[in-house]
Amino acid sequence: MPIEMPYNAHLSPRQDLEEILELVSIGRYHIRGSYVGDRSDGWPVHHFMYTLAGGAVAELHDQTIYAKPHTWWYLPPMPGHIYRTDPEVGYWEGLWIECRGQQIEHLLEIAGIAEQRSIADVQDALPAIEALHQLVQREGDQAALEAASLLMRVIALVGRCHRDVSRDPFTIVVDKIQNWVDQHIDQTIDIEELAQIAGFSTFHFLRVFKQHMSITPGAYIVARRILRAKTLLHQGQLNVSEVGRAVGYDRVQNFSAAFKRETGMSPRRYLKSLMQA
């Protein structure tokens, strides 16, 4: 057979994770010779692939992308795609991750890689990817929540690798800004203060941040607040008002309005949906 799978694992559906991020399957593949994966009609889940050796080519509706060792692919559900072994190499070995969830595209946007279908030189993310695979192989469905958290970490690491190889001077302060925001998520965060941390004027910081992250600093801060709020609501230890204060909103009305703008539903409705699930 041209394709071998030393292992693959599928997790049972979890409605409580579907709103955020749910791992569907993981696996490892060895492909020898000519192989074509035809998903031209689309695919119901988000598909990440990490090339360990060899190479591949994928044909998307608007571009052709290539994979060499240590390349990360992101193939979204729609539109469809076709991928194949690179005929100049003749083999392809790698790891795949399939997932679904309403927050996947949002997480990719926060990581700065929402529009990137192929990212080279992401070997620094490989230990986390392998840890995710080992976790699911070892614990199966019992690892669903931890696996979702680890996948978020993988996406963040791939985003960091992408920034590191982009050679944009702003990359030297991005991690510092992101860490500072996360550490002060329960407080008022001034754009001027972020600019000072970055060592830029406010005007230059706003312009470069948007260029680099494809999102304004203000929108990024709100996105991080709401993402943390979803995690806290899912944990079920705080009520809505307490969650709002924990992510920087003194008034529950302001928290509810921001949450609804980001998710399309109020925190109470979101919490109710979790309880029903």
Outline the fold blueprint:
Blueprint lengths: L2 E8 L4 H4 L3 E11 L3 E4 L6 E9 L1 E4 L4 E4 L4 E4 L5 E5 L5 E10 L3 H8 L6 E2 L6 H14 L4 H23 L4 H13 L7 H8 L3 H12 L3 H19 L4 H7 L5 H12 L3 H10 L1
Antiparallel strand pairs: 1-2, 2-9, 3-8, 4-7, 4-9, 5-6, 5-8, 7-10
Would you summarize the structure shown here?
The protein contains 11 helices and 10 strands. It is an alpha+beta fold and 277 residues long.
Known CATH architecture of the largest domain: Sandwich
The total tally of domains equals 2
Q: CATH homologous superfamily of the largest domain, by name?
A: Regulatory protein AraC
How many strands, which pairing sense, and closed or not: the largest β-sheet? 6 strands, antiparallel
Structural class: alpha+beta
Instruction: Please mark out the parts with pLDDT under 50 across 5 or more consecutive residues, or reply none.
Output: none
| Overall shape | globular
The CATH topology label of the largest domain is Jelly Rolls
Please tell me about this protein's structure.
The protein is α+β, with helices and mostly antiparallel strands. It has two domains: 3-166, Regulatory protein AraC (Jelly Rolls), CATH 2.60.120.280; 171-276, Orthogonal Bundle (Arc Repressor Mutant, subunit A), CATH 1.10.10. It is built from eleven helices and ten strands. It has helices at 15-18, 104-111, 126-139, 144-166, 171-183, 191-198, 202-213, 217-235, 240-246, 252-263, 267-276, and strands at residues 3-10, 22-32, 36-39, 46-54, 56-59, 64-67, 72-75, 81-85, 91-100, 118-119. The strands form two sheets. The chain has a six-stranded antiparallel beta sheet with strand order 1-2-9-4-7-10, with helices on one face. Strands 3-8-5-6 form a four-stranded antiparallel beta sheet, with no helix packed on it. A hairpin with a 4-residue loop joins strand 5 and strand 6 (64-67). Helix 3 packs antiparallel against helix 4. The longest helix is centred in the middle third of the chain and has 23 residues, at 144-166. The protein is globular, with a radius of gyration of 20 Å.
